[in-house]
Amino acid sequence: MDYLPLFAKLDGRRCVVVGGGEVAWRKARMLLKAGARLFLVAPEVNREIAEAAENGELVWIDQPFRPEHLDATFLVIAATDNPLVNELVAKAADNRHILANVVDDTPKCSFIVPSIVDRSPLIVAISSSGQAPVLARLIREKLETLLPQHLGQMAKIAGQFRDTLKARVQSLSGRRKFWEQAFEGRFSTLVAAGQHDEARDELESLSRSQKAGGSVALVGAGPGDAGLLTLKAVQLMQQADVVLYDYLVSEEVLELVRRDAELVSVGKKAGFHSVPQDQINQLLVNYAKSGKRVVRLKGGDPFVFGRGGEELETLMESGVTCQVVPGITAAAGATAYAGIPLTHRDYAQSATFITGHLKQEVDTLDWVTLARPNQTLVIYMGLMKSGYIQQQLLGNGRDPLTPVAIVERGTQEKQKVLRGTLSELSELAKSAESPSLIVVGEVAQLSEKLNWFSSSREKGLLLDEKDRQPAPAVVNLA
Fold first, then answer.
1. How far is the C-alpha of 75 from the C-alpha of 13, rounded, in Å?
2. Which of 119, 213, 427, 472 has the most beta carbons within 10 angstroms of its beta carbon?
3. Rounded to whole angstroms, how far apart are CA atoms 282 and 395?
4. Cβ(233)–Cβ(219) under 8 Å?
5. Cis omega before residue 148 (within 30°)?
6. From CA 405, how far away is CA 335, in angstroms rounded?
7. Lowest-confidence pick of 92-106, 259-273, 355-369
8. How far apart (Å, rounded) are the C-alpha atoms in residues 244 and 281?
9. How far apart are CA 85 and CA 78, in angstroms?
10. Residue 475: what pLDDT?
11. Which tens digit of pLDDT belongs to each residue from 202-240?
12. Closest by alpha carbon to 370, among 441, 305, 308, 426?
């Protein structure tokens, strides 16, 4: 982040614009609209500025700029067509620790002015950090069409009701739920229809019927790429008071959680469990019964080797309001990004998902069926047991030359695909790190040909130039 977005209160503060042309007048109008006490410095000005000065809207200093014009000033905008004057303004401001903006000269700016969508008191600001102002303007134009005019009035009425609500609803989470319900419900409809008195009555009624109960959503975080999250998943993550997340949930996905939400790591990975499952179940119940909105964020899909069924069972037995939001499971996401179709008319007519997190002494898997040709076998959490898996498949008739692939960190920037044959699986697994997915079957050989993700990365089609990383590594033992 090159710039920290701030909303500055200018009401009654001395602000200065240097310049007397159209650009200077445009900047002056913006500052006046924000309530600034405006001084404009220029030996010559256009008609609009002169009229504004005559009407007392601003003070025109009919002089060439001098550094002392910035004394006791909050911020200054340099908007002349003389680079030397603009540079003098920037240096004088810097010496006085004053915020300065030099129009169309980003390196000399200590602040930049964003494109603005004004629904006062609701303000939306868009900035490209001075790199692509036309792009910022185009985005603003799109937002102008998406954000209705009544949002400003809605914000004003809401602001007038805040103290009343605070007296009636003590908890911060309760007030947050109230506003989300109001802004998404009848209150919003009434404001949009211009029925402002009725809208105020709706807030009164709604505030007296608030319930303290919490809820839990079991949300699939997908295999890692945040772009694969469902819209509902993102909405719930933005509304959550508490998020319990696993080791498999990527940092990219966690970035989408509401900033003030409580994040609780219950990081589970092969060979290590920081929080036992029964304690996770109880945490979900406790948080919900304390009135919190909880998101249980699980890598992949909650119901595919995610133990979501156990958690849901506990929640329902405890009377907790709950829901499940499916996610793209690793078998679908990681294989797709690795160019491995799970089924293919020429190679595989079925796909089977199993977990490699098993104990040999209680192994109940039907290895005879799993070892049949012309099918795809996808193994979750199989790195540690790769030798045993290899032994069982070979021992039950699977061809040693059957193609295999291990997809490490599937769909993420550091995705790596290791290819080989079934006879090399245990050796191949030594070069992989968790989280990884093992794919056994003829379709695995298509990865080298169909790996669109790696190809797109090499061509720089997935990221901006500054964000490009080397293409995912490929290790081929075949």
1. 9
2. 472
3. 42
4. yes
5. no
6. 9
7. 259-273
8. 11
9. 8
10. 44
11. 999 988 876 667 899 999 999 999 999 999 999 899 989
12. 441
The SS3 call for residue 119 is strand
Q: CA separation (Å) from 218 to 282, 308, 323, 352, 386?
A: 14, 7, 6, 24, 30
State the Cα–Cα distance between residues 365 and 385, nearest whole angstrom: 14
- Buried/exposed 292-317: b ≥16 CB within 10 Å, e otherwise: bbbbbbbbbbbbbbbbbeebbebbee
Alpha-carbon gap, residue 351 to 431, rounded angstroms: 25
Which range (87-96, 188-197, 265-274) has the least confidence? 265-274
pLDDT tens digit string along 425-460? 999 999 999 889 999 999 999 988 888 777 666 555
In the predicted model, what is the mean pLDDT of residues 265-273? Answer: 66
| Structural tokens at position 239 | 């509304």
The pair of three-digit structure tokens given for residue 97, joined into one six-digit string: 């620790």
- For residues 228 and 131, give the distance between their C-alpha atoms in angstroms, rounded to a whole number: 28
List active site positions: 246, 268
Q: pLDDT higher for 226 or 170?
A: 226
- Structural contact between residues 230 and 325, judged by C-beta atoms closer than 8 angstroms: yes
383 vs 406: CA distance, rounded Å: 9
3-state SS string for 367-418: HHHHCCCCCEEEEECCCCCHHHHHHHHHHCCCCCCCEEEEEECCCCCCCEEE
C-beta separation of 335 from 341 below 8 A:
yes
DSSP labels, 257-270: S-TTSEEEE--EET
How many helices (H) and strands (E) are present in the chain, helices listed first? Answer: 18, 20
